[in-house]
Structures are given as C-alpha cells and as structure tokens.
Amino acid sequence: xxxxRYKITKKAGIYGITGNIxxxxxxxxAGFVFKSQSMIADSFNSAGDIFASLMTFIxxxxxxxxxxxxxxxxxGKAEYIFSMFIGISMILVSGKLFFDSISTLILx
Length: 108
What we know:
There is one protein chain. The protein is 82% helix and 0% strand. By secondary structure, the protein is an all-alpha fold. Helix 2 packs antiparallel against helix 3 (78-107).
C-alpha cells in the first residue's frame, strides 16, 4: 500500500512541476508586458508551487526508502521536514510580495 502511495505522489510531483513551469512562463510574460503587479505576483505564486512540488518529489523519494540500520522505522518523517521547508518558503515569499506591494502603493 505504501509503495503505491509513493508512486502516486511521485507522479503528482512531476505533473505539478511541469504544469507550473508552463504557468510561470505565461504569467510572467503577461505580467511584464502589461506591467501588471498582480500577474507578476501570481507568477511568483507559480514559482512557489514549482518549489512545493519539487520538495514533495524529493521528500517522497527519501520517505520511500525502507528502514535500515540507522533508521529502524524507515525514512517517512522526511515528508514532514520537506513540508516545513515549503511552509517557510511561502511565508518568505508572501512577506516579500507584501512589502513590494506596499512600496508600489506608496511610491507609485
């Protein structure tokens, strides 16, 4: 059962990375061509989604490694660590976008 879950998560990670790369390119081009701050911010969101999918892919790959001498219960906790990386990155990106938006409103 676990093996099937890891295969499905791997597939979802690959599809997520591929789809979001396409979205990132389209949104970034539209944002810069039309000078749309919201479209540029949305392209950053797609970049964050690429990062999240990549972290899911890596965490899943590590978590699927069976138990060994150093890890009696396996490597399943790797998924939680990589989820933490995703959360921290989203906080940092949203903070940056927030401050950029405020400065754009104030400075024009």
